[in-house]
Amino acid sequence: xTTSCCAECGGEEGGVIxxxxxxxxxxxxxxxxxxxxxxxxxxxxxxKLRAAExxxxxxxxxxPAKEDCPICFIPMPAGLLSCMTLPPATITSVPIADFAxxxxxxANIGMETYYSCCGKSICEGCVDSFHISHSDEKCxxxxxxxxxxxxxxxxxxLMKRVEVNDAGAMYVLGxxxxxRKLGLLQDRGKALxxxxxxxxxxxxxxxxxxxxxxxxxxxxxxxxxxYEAAAMAGHEDARYNLGCTEAQSGNVExxxxxWMISASAxxxxxxxTLIKVIEMGYVSRxxxxxxxxxxxxxxAEMRSEARDAAARLYITSIGAR
Length: 321
What we know:
By secondary structure, this protein is mainly α. It folds into two domains: 1-59, no CATH class; 80-319, Serine Threonine Protein Phosphatase 5, Tetratricopeptide repeat (Alpha Horseshoe), CATH 1.25.40. Helices cover 55% and strands 4% of the residues. The protein has 13 helices and four strands. The protein is globular, with a radius of gyration of 23 Å.
């Protein structure tokens, strides 16, 4: 708790004195920047300790609720495997993880499409259902006519959304520059700029991809910052990666915390990993049972007949290659 007087000079709140709390720890107040600078040598150790505690409180808090698809109003899955109808996980098996290991081509397939005409991200179940019932190409949400849209026009549409600070458009356009999509030449600098802008607006996917980029570049500090930001915003892959990093550093208890949160949100790899580490004594049977229940419930919430049908289409198309 902060006090009602300046931690350096003792000046009390009131009159011409307006105290402001230290924004790192919120434990002390100062009447001006000079008092804060002068008090820093004394305050530094306690400030950093409390700031770390506050960071952990935020980091290990349960993730926010998933965003719903704007058409079916079902929570948006992290990927195809998170919303497939398979038998529930048990203490000895995680069907989705077992299936993923046997079908690696499916492991990284996303289950949403972004439309720049209205700035909406729509689950593939609704996208496929709409296209099956309509012979023409329209946006499933706003019904904008998309027939004959060239790649140049698609990029122009994304850029218009970027101009109005649409984080989704920034992320998609950044991906297009990074992976040479929509006819764009690869420009990692431009992609990094767009990811960074989207992350500043709260995009968990942008934070996650920035974490991946800094991981590849060997910048562990920025990698951790972006993975943590993505995890706190509900990105299960980022949370799982943080757990793996903690485990590699010998911080198994912190790793288990990350994996339990990620698994509870429907992340199959985290659930599989937890089942493996139970033999090491870091996870109690009761904790595993409750996490499996949360995992099954989370996956069930993301499933629908339309999403099952979309998943089958992906599986059929991959099998036909």
